[in-house]
Amino acid sequence: MTERYITPEKLLAARFEEPWKIPRWDAAILCFRDKTGSDALVETLPAVPVGRKIFWGIEEADDLPVVYAAEINGKVVGIVTRCIWGGHQASILIEELAAMGVGVVVGYGAAGSLDPAIGQGRQLVVTSAIATDGTSSYYGSGPFSADSGLLRFVPTATPVVAATTDAVYRETPGVVAEWKALGASVVNMESAPFYAASAACGMRAIWLGMVTDVISEVWQDWFVDQSEAKAISNCLDVIRGI
């Protein structure tokens, strides 16, 4: 099917007939990025603001919308932007998306590399996430994995094992050494709960992103360039493929 984007008026008329109805989305993208990174995704689609409250704890505003929708290859996709509060937020959103009937969820984010060989800008797909955070333990002991069927849509992304942390200011050398001993090569705030909640809710999930900083003897500070556009392209490849 040829890719097409519908107008805001048509999207709202077709999918949000009455304000109390639950949106009918075929898939969702959780954007684990700040406003700049989120805006890049929204503008690439382009996506339309939903314009009303959908999720617990996420308030909509006309001048700063958070939840969007777009049509990609005939699939209506919900996009939740600025999901920057880590595993707790990720698990809540996954549970609510599952209750809405969404079957496929894509995480679009960033990660710190624990391996200097996996440098800044590298495209990533988290294939496995270790339960090193607090939220994941409610779903199981881990590790938690990506949906194997979705991995084939991102053949050029580097497969990695991720550690997840709730305390970004406590990534001490000792803790990083523990993560590496468990097999992790990157760290972020949401991969394990994202996969854990998805599995518990029967959803197909994949986390995609890029390396923004490297945690080694000398920290390589945050850096984002054209790699962001490639990460967004990878997300869209998954949506197109399902």
Characterize the structure shown:
- The chain is α/β, with parallel strands linked by helices.
- It has a single domain, classed as Nucleoside phosphorylase domain (Rossmann fold, 3-Layer(aba) Sandwich), CATH 3.40.50.
- Helix content is 29%, strand content 25%.
- A 5-stranded mixed beta barrel has the order 5-9-8-6-10.
- The longest helix is centred in the last third of the chain and has 15 residues, at 227-241.
What count of structural domains?
1
What is the helix fraction of residues, given as a range? 25-40%
Mean pLDDT: 89
Radius of gyration using CA atoms only: 17 Å
Output the CATH class name.
Alpha Beta
Task: Note the run of SSEs as H and E.
Answer: HEHEEEHEEEHEHEHEH
CATH-assigned fold name: Rossmann fold
Shape: globular
User: Low-confidence parts lasting 5 or more residues at pLDDT below 50?
Assistant: 1-6
Largest β sheet strand count, sense and barrel closure: 5 strands, mixed, barrel
In whole angstroms, the N-to-C terminal distance is: 12 Å
How many beta-strand runs? 10
